[in-house]
């Protein structure tokens, strides 16, 4: 089965060309040539060894011939009569016939006394001087003189002449050819046998190599087919030898690969179908930022065609999507963003995550309907609150007029007071709903300017002095700093007002409230602390939600709307900060919010510090109003 591209592959790439194949069996030629080369080397090595062995054998036989000739010379000395006798020549010829060696007798002065037929080279130089071996034998009677020259070996021994002439020398000679000729003939015969054996072995080896090469060539063809993606290829070798075992192992491997690839292809098809059936758009990139895969949803909503194998920036021009994917690729962490320009009129929540093998995958969730629903809800709340405000004001005005007239007494007056109380509560609720809708809409804009943190805390405490005095609580500033922050004083007064009113309502048992600001490494932290009953741990993550109440009965009794903390959270976020609550049951609660520091113009921002007032946020939000109403837990 041919390989098909899966997720992350480049389907538009052309298939790789098949490998070049020479005619015939290239494996056979290579194996045979190497085999013949090896046989040639073996033949040369054998010839060299035969030559060396022949040379050594010739030397050994020559030494043995010298020893044998010396023994003959020593025995012949005993048979040679003195030179004065007339039988010297007869004795010399007899010794030569018996030993087969040329025999000569020299006098003490080196003169030739008698000799059998001399070697041809010696006969021409017989009277030219004393031979070297004769001179050595006469000089050293106890030794045997040996010398090689002109293709002969000469052995001379000293002999006592028994007469007035003194010592004589007996010399015997044999040709070296009687030794070399058989050795050369033997070596030639041995070399010829070696050559014939090598030729026969080369022919047999060539036949075996050709058969083995054909089987190897089948394995090579099988490997090439598998490399080209044909996993159905098989060698199908009979059970003969080790090659068969290799072929069976390769067939088993190919079969398992085919099964695995089929399972992988099935899983890939299922995954592709699953991702294409998703409502979310999905795109995957490799470690270099090139598009490796995307589903059909993204292809439909993208303004430009998605081209796999090319950089993501060439296909997706949305900066928020590119930033989220870049975060996942470069930092190895999840990247989140909100995209509004990928498709006209649609909003996407982008979540990008790194993949273990490198690269990243991004999921784009269409939240356009959610955004429209939220906008409709905010508009509905704002419109309803606005429409309710006028009739509620009229009801409160008429009820107050009736109560002030003094004509209403008894139970009717009690009913009017209940009506006034609930109408006031509804009025506060509508004001808070209008304030929250304004903050959450894109029309609200904070007026940021540099202001010391201590001034923000002081102004807030001063503006709340009357409210604190009526509650019989003590509000004290326990910590402050002159570090400036970029903030809207009126908006932060509302935040402090909501937090302090919340502390007054739920921290009366502590009898005091603490407020302050402290400078941290990259921000200024403001806080309001009460010493009341505290908040349970399971409520801390939800107390900033709109209409959420920890104790619903107490909240209604105190007249709270459940929107104060939600308004405070939105205002702090518009300043580029964050807000949280720390509390334990029985130990009170501390509300803390942080704002970025305002650095001097000459001091660059360090790592971890962000701009105190994002220009983009200022341009997108328009001016609004915040209503001061009680905050509830």
What can you tell me about this protein's structure?
With 633 residues, the protein is of the alpha+beta class. The protein has 4 domains: 201 residues, PAS domain (Beta-Lactamase); 89 residues, Beta-Lactamase, CATH 3.30.450.20; 60 residues, Helix Hairpins (Orthogonal Bundle); 179 residues, 2-Layer Sandwich (Heat Shock Protein 90), CATH 3.30.565.10. Helix 11 crosses helix 13. It has a 5-stranded antiparallel β-sheet with strand order 2-1-5-4-3, sandwiched between helices. It has a 5-stranded antiparallel β-sheet with strand order 7-6-10-9-8. It is 49% helix and 16% strand. The protein starts with 25 loop residues before the first helix and ends in a 13-residue tail after the last helix.
């Amino acid at each position: 089965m041919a390989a098909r591209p899966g997720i992350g592959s480049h389907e538009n790439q052309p298939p790789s060309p098949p490998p070049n194949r020479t005619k015939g069996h290239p494996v056979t030629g290579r194996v045979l040539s190497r085999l013949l080369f090896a046989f040639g080397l073996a033949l040369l090595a054998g010839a060299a060894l035969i030559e060396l062995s022949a040379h050594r054998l010739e030397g050994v036989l020559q030494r043995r011939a010298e020893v044998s000739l010396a023994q003959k010379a020593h025995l012949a000395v005993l048979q040679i009569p003195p030179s004065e006798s007339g039988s010297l020549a007869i004795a010399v010829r007899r010794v030569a016939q018996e030993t087969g060696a040329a025999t000569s007798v020299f006098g003490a002065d080196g003169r030739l006394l008698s000799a059998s037929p001399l070697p041809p080279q010696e006969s021409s130089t017989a009277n030219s001087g004393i031979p070297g071996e004769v001179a050595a034998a006469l000089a050293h009677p106890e030794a045997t003189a040996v010398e090689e020259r002109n293709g002969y070996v000469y052995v001379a021994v000293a002999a006592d002449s028994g007469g007035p002439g003194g010592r004589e020398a007996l010399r015997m000679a044999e040709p070296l050819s009687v030794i070399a000729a058989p050795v050369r003939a033997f070596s030639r015969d041995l070399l010829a046998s070696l050559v014939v054996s090598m030729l026969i072995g080369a022919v047999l080896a060539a036949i075996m190599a050709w058969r083995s090469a054909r089987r190897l060539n089948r394995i090579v063809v099988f490997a090439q087919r598998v490399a080209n993606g044909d996993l159905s290829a098989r060698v199908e070798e009979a059970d003969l030898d080790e090659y068969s075992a290799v072929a069976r192992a390769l067939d088993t491997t190919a079969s398992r690969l085919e099964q695995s690839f089929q399972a992988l292809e099935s899983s890939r098809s299922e995954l592709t179908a699953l991702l294409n059936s998703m409502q979310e758009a999905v795109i995957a990139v490799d470690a270099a930022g090139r598009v490796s895969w995307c589903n059909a949803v993204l292809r439909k909503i993208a303004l430009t065609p998605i081209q796999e194998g090319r950089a993501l920036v060439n296909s997706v021009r949305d900066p928020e999507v590119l930033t989220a994917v870049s975060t996942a690729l470069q930092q190895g962490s999840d990247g989140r963003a909100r995209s509004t320009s990928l498709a006209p009129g649609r909003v996407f929540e982008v979540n990008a995550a790194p993949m273990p093998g490198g690269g990243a995958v991004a999921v784009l969730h269409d939240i356009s309907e959610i955004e429209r629903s939220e906008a409709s809800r905010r508009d509905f709340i704002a419109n309803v609150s606005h429409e309710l405000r006028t009739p509620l004001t009229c009801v409160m005005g008429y009820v107050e007029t009736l109560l002030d007239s003094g004509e209403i007494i008894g139970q009717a007056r009690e009913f009017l007071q209940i009506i006034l109380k609930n109408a006031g509560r509804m009025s506060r609720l509508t004001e808070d709903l209008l304030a929250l809708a304004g903050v959450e809409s894109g029309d609200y804009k904070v007026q940021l300017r540099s202001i010391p943190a201590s001034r923000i805390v002081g102004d807030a405490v001063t503006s709340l002095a009357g409210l604190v005095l009526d509650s019989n609580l003590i509000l004290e500033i326990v910590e402050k700093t002159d570090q400036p922050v970029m903030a809207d004083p009126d908006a932060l007064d509302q935040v402090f007002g909501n937090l302090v009113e919340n502390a007054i309502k739920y921290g009366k048992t502590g009898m005091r409230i603490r407020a302050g600001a402290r400078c941290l490494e990259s921000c200024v932290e403001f806080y309001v602390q009460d010493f009341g009953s505290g908040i349970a741990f399971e409520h801390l993550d939800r107390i900033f939600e709109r209409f959420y109440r920890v104790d619903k009965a107490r909240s209604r009794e105190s007249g709270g709307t459940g929107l104060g903390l939600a308004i405070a959270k939105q205002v702090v976020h518009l300043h580029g900060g964050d807000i949280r609550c720390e509390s334990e049951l029985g130990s009170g609660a501390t509300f803390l919010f942080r704002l970025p520091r305002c650095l001097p113009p000459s001091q660059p921002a360090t790592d971890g510090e962000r701009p105190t007032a994002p220009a983009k946020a200022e341009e997108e939000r328009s001016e609004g109003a915040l209503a001061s109403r009680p905050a509830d837990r």
